[in-house]
Amino acid sequence: MSFFRRIYQFDYMGHKLWWFALSGIIIAVGLVSLAVNGLQFGLEFQEGTRITVAFETPPALADLRAAVAEAGYPNAQIQQTANVSGSGVEGFQLQTPMLSAEQQTELRATLDEQFPIENSAGKLVWGVETVSASFGKQVASSSLKAVGIALLLILAYVTFRFQWKYAVGAIAAEVHDLLIVIGIYSLTGREVTTATIAAVLTIMGYSLYDTVIIFDRIRENEPKLGRMPYADMVNESLWETLTRSLNTSFMSLLPVVCLFFFGGETLKDFAFALLVGIISGAYSTIFIASPVLTVLKEREPRYKKLKAAARAEQA
Fold first, then answer.
1. Residue where one domain finishes, among candidates 91, 114, 131
2. pLDDT digits over 270-282, tens only?
3. How far apart are CA 88 and CA 61, in angstroms?
């Protein structure tokens, strides 16, 4: 019990510089990896020919890679897919450099010889789509716009409901979570897909929800604990909401963990981003959003005096 009491009554705001330093180190490592390794973008973002195919007897992914490499495309990206060309049949998606009609025919014949292509309802399960560089840029641009608009809406909402200093804390937590997710993806080399973008937007909403719960309690305590230094009041608010925040995070993690370990390949990308984001969001609410708010509010004359008086008493 003493261990949990120390956690619940810990001076979180008194150690805010440590939290900033810890997050700064993690983000810096991720940015270095991003500069050196970049991000591994999925098939949706890349130029080339995209082929979806299913086989009568699905080969191992390694065997299919070897066959495609022997056909003259060693750098082709291959991943399993749950729905080939809208047929509902499980198969594979291949991303190659831009192929002519003749090259497509040759590749199809090579694969059909080694791993007979499935015939579904009298039609071979084989789909070809040409993806231009402009399409990949459009997808990336649209994703960035979606994240940017979400941040602006969050800024407007929190400013309207609370005040701009609360909004700065909320945005700092959101940007922190985005950088953590990007850094983790760069470090692990996982592919960034459209499912990742969807997960990132979901994470932003979750993180904001958790932040608003604590901010709401801080606002409620401002008139009641007005003679207390702002950092102490924020600590008090955190202690009062910590159980709810941790329970929410834990219950959100349970289905995501199940998706990650037991879901299909297409769901694992989404689940991994959610997993990282929920953990980061639970952390940033307590250790980023609240400390940033505290730093801003302590600059107000009223709270500056209360802080100075508290230090004088301790001395």
1. 131
2. 888 888 888 888 8
3. 19
